Amino acid sequence: MDFNLTSEQQMFQDSVRAFAERELKPGAHQRAHSHEYPYDAARKLAGQGLLGITIPEEKGGQGGSLFDAVLAIEQIALACPRSADVIQAGNFGAVRVLAEFASEAQLEQHLSGILSGEKIMSVCMTEPGAGSAATELTTTATPDGDGYRINGSKIFTTHGMHAHLFLVYVRFGPGLDGIGSVLVKRNAEGMRFGQGSEFMSGEEWTTFFFDNVYIPKENILLGPGGFKKQISAFNVERLGNTSRALALGEYAFRVARDYAIDRKQFGRPLCEFQGLQWKFADMRMQLDAARLLLYRASVNADRGLPSASETAIAKAYCNQAASTPPMNRSRSWAAWDIRRSRSSNIASGGHAAG
């Protein structure tokens, strides 16, 4: 068993790292504290072929693997955490559901704009009474002529204030088999936005209200019985958050290490004190173990074995490992920016999220 990257994977990782350092690291702080969606980063990522890595070439993507996307997200997150949000959304979650299950007409209408970085797609799944228990959702799709009427509400819709297209989970009928999804365009008649809010990271979310919103039958993505297919695509989405968590921990480790090398007390660098060496050793072990768990889950998912347990274990452990370096660092000296980055990771789907 070879734990090293192949030469092609190493070249890809190096090229993404160089691109991120050159194009995304400048302005990273401003993006992190802006209320606007970073379209500049989205266009740069699209130009580099980093949106749609996991989507087949015949559908406009790059035809790469989940592992390729994991490698890319980690390198982008090390340089610009806000841009990592963009690349995650361009490879996992709603865009994968769209690419995998949409009709030719739906793909032609929506996918190219998302992969070019010009448009955003958001998921409306969570409801006030249906969070982790997604099967308890109550938003309904009721037949009306040649289409459907959507009624209900959604909450914690990430990118909701900026998205152009929404993947809305709805109930066509009772039980698990009654759940499916529809596509709703922004500003559809009867669709109302709640007041925008922010996670601890500064990334925005909002609530949505659907009051008799009409959609044609062509806007059905997955009809009754489609829930399991949709969730299977979101199982691998955990890998995107996991890559960002790992990058956060690695970044914090490097900042702390460099500080310990430069900072002197009692006539010698902090890194020469054995107590701190123990902390650094523990952090390094946790981060290396986290990376192996993430790589195992992503490689096995590429082999057609998207294990829910492997992805969940990787996500939980990487988020826990990512918490260790910033917390150790903040106990020793000021670390506001790193704590904010940790908040960003938790808000974007940390280990407590589904």
UniProtKB/TrEMBL annotation:
Residues 226-322 form the Acyl-CoA dehydrogenase/oxidase C-terminal domain. Residues 6-118 form the Acyl-CoA dehydrogenase/oxidase N-terminal domain. Residues 123-213 form the Acyl-CoA oxidase/dehydrogenase middle domain. It comes from the Bacteria. It is an enzyme of class 1 (oxidoreductase). Its EC number is 1.3.8.1. GO terms for biological process: butyrate catabolic process; fatty acid beta-oxidation using acyl-CoA dehydrogenase. The keyword Flavoprotein applies. One of its GO terms (molecular function) is short-chain fatty acyl-CoA dehydrogenase activity. Its cofactor is FAD. Keywords: FAD, Flavoprotein, Oxidoreductase. Belongs to the acyl-CoA dehydrogenase family. This is Butyryl-CoA dehydrogenase. It comes from Sphingobium fuliginis (strain ATCC 27551).
